[in-house]
């Protein structure tokens, strides 16, 4: 980013009296500090560059097209802050930075916001100013922005706003002012005195002059003037008392108005909640009535059909409403479905045809899958709504789940939600998937702490029985914004790495450090739980790196999707025995398959029984389809929304 020189900068060593000395002698028209002995310090952007070492690029800090509040980056940044505006301070932002475990555009904005609010534009409050969020569009722009001009303007504006005529002449400008001046004060001849001594000397001289003038004036004044002053003082005190009384009355009146406003607001909120409750009850009643009506019609038509069909006939009847898993070409929620001589009305709930079943990468999307994915990728709805909650701690908001949209790097929380779904399906099988959060590789993290985290995860899952009934253990890894999977076969004592990236990096440089850490953590866990596979896993068997024919060279975005497919489809065999039907990236149907699988996994995660909010998402999708009932217009709108989302993520 170009701000490395700020690390270890000795801010706390600057003299405390230096700021006011500089402010008093700073001429904002020429941006020069004129010292009492005739010396001059010139403040320029280039000198700020020499002192702080921050970037001085060709771009202006203030962007022509500012970032909108509806932008996804703006939403992500604001989502990490407190909802209470008064708690959005530099201190809270500093705590967020210290707990960050990765670097992305949000981390960059956090650092720049702290830099600009502490070392640039300062106020007499710790609350944040959002000029960085509005003007810095991309991480690539940061080193190309002229930060020195920005600081130079901050210094100039802070002096213009400083009032030196009052007793409490506090200065709220940037501390950078003092660092710049302190750096160059050493190069100016101040007749052998340092700045602190000069300031103190000048202050003493000014006090002495004022005292002498006051003494001389007092000697010349006559008694009549003293009487006048006493009367004036009494009058002033009386006016002050009246002023205080008026202010107290005004405060009391404002407090009463505030209480009335709060009361009115509370009544409005109560009325709104009651209205929402009544509306929800009406919707539930309407849905129940519709379901009963359809059930009654279904029963009547079935009875009529049975009366028409001879006893020896046994026609094949298959309903195709929402939730049947039929292809888009075979199912339609707009029309009644005719089979034989009866009509079947659609159900009012969506469902994934791959619930408790391995996803097929070749089959076309069902109508339910398409509709659910479209409703999410339309980018409609509250971005902070929790669309996935497994009831065990894995919660994903809408804006995060929307990273499944084509062309966007899938968020790690989405992977954790998929892991929760897969573990629900693998209850009676021999696979165990772990979340990304339990194996984040950080050299500074204590190994025992990682083991305790792993044990905590497995102890909550009674079906795993501390991995006693598990054959394959999956560790999803994210390193440098790239996803891959490490799989341990406890029966054979082997390990394999499943990575879609076909890069030139070798094992030592790309995998070894992380693999050794994960393997050591697993061995410690097996030893602590006295697992029968301990001796097999302690053997120093070389890890295998699967050379799948569908590995990619160009695709750098869909590594998260490949991780999900690998975790679902891998059963322990690699090479020719592992068949997935995943296409090569050069295949003409490749991009369509990738898009289809993103939509399929969206439906699988959100409509799965493991998701406590699956009904909410089904209702949202059905409502979305009713509001956008023109299929062509609906498709066009969603396609445009997905393109915008991908474009925003790139920038």
From TrEMBL:
A biological-process GO annotation: proteolysis
InterPro entries, A to Z: Papain-like_cys_pep_sf, Peptidase_C48_C
Compositional bias of kind Basic and acidic residues: 214-305
Pfam entry (one): Peptidase_C48
Residue ranges constituting the Ubiquitin-like protease family profile domain according to the UniProt record: 394-570
Region (Disordered), start-end ranges: 214-325
Top-level taxon of the source organism: Eukaryota
The protein's name in its UniProt record: Peptidase C48, SUMO/Sentrin/Ubl1
Sample GO molecular function, one term: cysteine-type peptidase activity
Keywords: Hydrolase, Protease
Family the UniProt entry places it in: Belongs to the peptidase C48 family.
Keyword Protease: yes
